[in-house]
Amino acid sequence: MLNRAIRNSICILISWVLFIPTLNAQFCGNRLDYIPDTSRIDDFPIRYVRINLHVIADAQGAYNFDDSLSIQFFTSLIDIANYKLRVKTSMNLPLHNTVPNIPCRYQYQLASSINDATVPAIYLHMETNPMYQFFNSAHTTANNVYSTFWYDTYGIHKGDELNVFFLSHHPDSLNSRTYSAKDQGVGPAKYVLMANAFQLYQQNIAKGMSKNDAIVNTASLTANLLNHEIGHSLGLMHTWNGGDGCDDTPMNAGCWYSNDPANPCSNNMMDYNAAQSAITPCQLSIIHSNFADKKSSQYQLLAPIWCEKKDSLKIIIYPNEHIVWSGSKDLEGDIIIRNKASLEIKCIVSLPKNAKVVLYPEASLILNGGLITNTCSEKWKGIQYMKKRKLKAKVVYLAGGRIENYIE
Ligand SMILES: [Zn+2]
Q1: Same domain, 349 and 280
Q2: Which pTM was predicted?
């Protein structure tokens, strides 16, 4: 049973069927190879998930954020959600745990509108069918949370952008003493459906908050649920029953908030709690291995920033270092292997057009079953040596290792 506090925010786990792309993941190497390595964090470029936002109003455009409020609220929401991902905290549970708090290395990128590339992809819809103007948490009606109506009807750039829908509770329901309006949502692979943000904003205004304060407060509260639901879309499951594929996530203690340091609640993003501020290394391995699976729905959502070379994002293997990359990577700059250093590649490394691998004297590039390629239908620049005589720098090909799509 959920206690009353937990019922403040409910995410309804959508059908297992929708998680099939995760369960059938086809990434190279071991899943744990995709945990960002804090000692070499530049080797794990930040991933950007493209999203667009939809506001569902009634036929008169009422009962949800209007044009003028939407831009301000939703840009604040994305900024705050990204901030919360960047500053995520250590795990509260189990007490005295040593689970490391490592950077999550993913963010959201609000797409551009299909109508005007200079404005963000925030779409207002005046739904004429009363059945679909409002969120309905009942499971027995056609317009229930499992309905794909909104995605089917209004989805834009399906598959390439995560479509996030914001609905309101029905005004009649809000007037009912027996109806409890909650933050609610679902997070299938290709869209997210959420309710209650506009009600929270109205409540904040009714409390006397200024418009700006109400927007920031509402965005901060809503960002927790957004991160949770997108966590589902990226492949994560609820943690409290076990069986989420991770042994570093705590079983939920049925607790929303505690100010007792000796008896804290879980603060994991995929539990129901007031913080939702922690993501474990195992959870990150699921997300990033899904990003590395080029057949996954999660990979398709990524902004392909690795197709454009950035001089500032070169990867350097320093003198005498010996680095092994056991997972695939989509890099955005050159790879520099300095004197007497070595880099062993076991999976697929994508380099952008005109990027190169530079070998200093006595450096080694070992392609141990690995592949260096370009996945943007262009060519990378190939391997270069710092000295013409090569000075014992070498490229070693093992277990079918090779390079392709380079300028010969
Ligand atoms: Zn959930």
Answers
A1: no
A2: 0.92
